[in-house]
Each structure stands twice: as C-alpha cells, then as structure tokens.
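Task card 7
Instruction: Convert sequence to structure tokens.
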Amino acid sequence: MNIGEAARSSGVSAKMIRHYEAIGLLSPAARSRSGYRIYSDSDVYALRFIRRARDLGFSLHQIKQLLELWRDRRRSSADVKRIALAHVDELRRKIAELESMARTLEHLARHCHGDHRPECPILDDLAAPAGAAARRTKRPSYASPDKTDERHARRSPHPAR
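Output:
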C-alpha cells in the first residue's frame, strides 16, 4: 500500500510516517520502480503500535525500546513492565505538577476581584521575580475600599495601559 493508504489504516499522518522512518522508529519502506514508498501490513501494525504508544504519552525513546521488545519474541516481559512503570511514575510526577499549578491558579483567582479595579493578584504573581511567588506565604489582600485602590494605583509599579 502507498503512504496515504498506510496513513489511513494506521491513523498516523503521512508526514509522521516519514518522520518515524527518518528517526529509525519505522524501517525504511520498500520502494516502487517509480520511487514511491510501499508499506506492508506489518508496517501498518508497527505504525498502530507507535500511535497507541504516543497516545499513552510514551517518549520516542521509550517507543523505540518498546518496539524492539515487541519485535523480539525472546523478550522478557519484565523489561516491558519496567518501561511501563517508569512511565507511570513520570506521568504521576507530571500530574502532581499540574495539580499544583491548578491549586495556585485557583488560589490567585479566588483573590482576584474580577471587577473594574486594576489590582490583580494573578498579574502580580506572574510579574514577581522568579521564585518569589513560590516563596510568598501570605498573599496581599485585595479587598480594599476604593480610596485605597486610588492610592495603590498612584504608586503601582505597573504602567498604565
């Protein structure tokens, strides 16, 4: 089958098929007399394997390892399990980072009035020097009356827009 047919059968775009060939995840395709790539059913199975592994978030390096194990009928399933569990650990670390970011943004959003006043703890946090926001233990209170808002606006380090 040609690259378009292989792409449709595998769910991997023609561009990505070429890329996977170029980086060695997929063996170079056979060529027709006119130079067009020709893919076999086993190539399509490998492309589906790659697609599923990418859907699960495996890195290209991990996919290369998994493909080698998949093709090696004398493999030890312990090797496959080791790669999968290492990936689970990485996913859990990323999930924890994302949850931490979400908690921080929720905290900042709770303290933002979201009204006509220019004060915004979200912008203040984003503008803080690197690491300063994370070290802060107490967030400024933005529940001030309008007179305080005016005084703050006059001495605010943020340029008017």
